[in-house]
Amino acid sequence: MGQCLPCMGDPVKDVVETPDPEIKRRQLAEAAEKRQMEASSRGIKNVQSVEQKKKKQEEIERRMAASRPGGEGGLRWQVG
């Protein structure tokens, strides 16, 4: 009877190197960002169009806030 022992093989193949903690942390951060991007674009066919609309809306809101006199709610009360 022959014996087949896998432990007699090349010891270098069996060694699994653990990555440096900083590399592991960076990889986890990249994976998290990728998941967030995928989740935010789920169900949206044209992501760039949605981002452009959002930026345009924010710009309109900024302009309206800047055009308000005194920075208040835009309403003036006069007591006469």
From TrEMBL:
A Pfam short name: SVIP
Residue segments, region Disordered: 1-80
Cellular component, GO, one term: endoplasmic reticulum membrane
InterPro entries: SVIP (IPR031632), SVIP_metazoa (IPR055366)
Keywords recorded for this protein, A-Z: Lipoprotein, Myristate, Palmitate
Basic and acidic residues bias locations: 11-37
Gene Ontology annotations of biological process type: negative regulation of ERAD pathway; negative regulation of retrograde protein transport, ER to cytosol; negative regulation of VCP-NPL4-UFD1 AAA ATPase complex assembly; positive regulation of autophagy
Stored PANTHER family: SMALL VCP/P97-INTERACTING PROTEIN, SMALL VCP_P97-INTERACTING PROTEIN
Protein name: Small VCP/p97-interacting protein
